[in-house]
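Annotated sample (chain length 472).
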Amino acid sequence: MPRLPELAAAGMLLAATVMTASHAATPAADEAAFRSLFRELIEINTTRSVGSCTEAAKAMRARLLAAGYADPDLSLLTPADEPRAGALLAELHGRDPALKPILLLAHLDVVEAKREDWTRDPFRLVEEGGFFYGRGTADDKAMAAVITDTMIRMKQSGKAPKRGLKLALTCAEETADWYNTVEHLTATRPEVLAAEFALNEGGEGELDANGRHVTLGIQAGEKVYQDFILEVTDPGGHSSRPTRENALVRLSRAVVRVGEYQFPVALNEVTRGYFTAEARLVAPDVAADMRALLANEQDAAAAARLWSADPAWNGRMRTTCVPTMSNGGHAPNALPQRAQANVNCRILPGVPIDAVRAELVRVIGDDRVSVRPTGTPGMQAPVPPLTPRIMRPITDVAAKLWPGVAVVPSMSTGATDGRFLNAAGIPTYGLTGLFHDAEGSHMHGLNERVRVQALLDSRQFLYELIVRLSSE
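Output written by the structure step:
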């Protein structure tokens, strides 16, 4: 973005605010270009079934070329056996080649969306009532648009940063059985994504009922995803001759035991920081339970009340395993020969998958019920450190844009491509600067949305932060 006098810059911000409130003013030229970029991304279908990440990557490549990037600094990676799973890599060289670059990461693929289920066409960007609606508006094309726009603005400023930047717009983060760009590159071409650290999706902000900015999350680490299959087999027989052993009944007992069991609370540095910060913001009775848990992880009553207050808090404090699917039997007039259930576990960092399996076996207490992991083994990754070098710039820029907001460390209870980078030795932090109300963004669900002003604020927050981080 060209340098502007302070007065002109303030005028642009004021114009953006007025435009959002009234929709009457014309957005500044650079904001209009950003909106166009965002619209283009949303309206390119990038689902696994019929979409194409490659098309979206090509569109962003064209935007960067138009901004002045040269061909050698832009790489379109398209696997020969997955022509729709293309990704874009771009580089803005720094003035000091001895400094490792910063990696800016976002995925282009989105979760499936059926037009007949949505109020609006999921692949048309609709601005309505202060929100943008469309598949990917929150997960993860908001981040993809903002960091691509940041690369454009920094290139057009005419001044190279001290520390270089890498942009990676990737594919197949949402689909476990598809080619995954980050997984593939960290395994086969680690130099391509090599960086001092990375900024990724996650770590969103919370608004209170009055729209006040309360907390800005920074994600450091995530739980490990692992499914287990519980299975019981039996010779079966005619249903008119029931036996003392029934595969469905035996499996049902096992499922109930797993469903009722709670792994012990085990807080780490990040989750301790999270509950410490949250205890300053929540109602006094909830804060008392958080402080009780921080003082004594064995306080089961406090943990239970926090779980009732917010299921996400339960996910942050312990490993969780929940039954999610079951099937069994082969005919309505036959004793079941086989019964299975899927148990989905989200495992705390540092806890071995084998240890979780052993605990499930112990809880079930029935050697006729087999317990085996299924799918791609979950990836253990270290938790990146929240050092002053990382936290101070985030806190400073957040305080400038949202005075009084609390910057809160968080651990994801889901999974992102950050797990591959952390495992490869690249500290990866989830930080979008996007704020949501209690209803949330509906990501992965119907009528996904993001607040218009939240997206514009995220654009400004990440731009200012990345400029500062790349100058140090």
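Annotation: The first strand starts at residue 74 and ends at 77.
Annotation: The chain has two domains: 6-202+416-471, 222-374.
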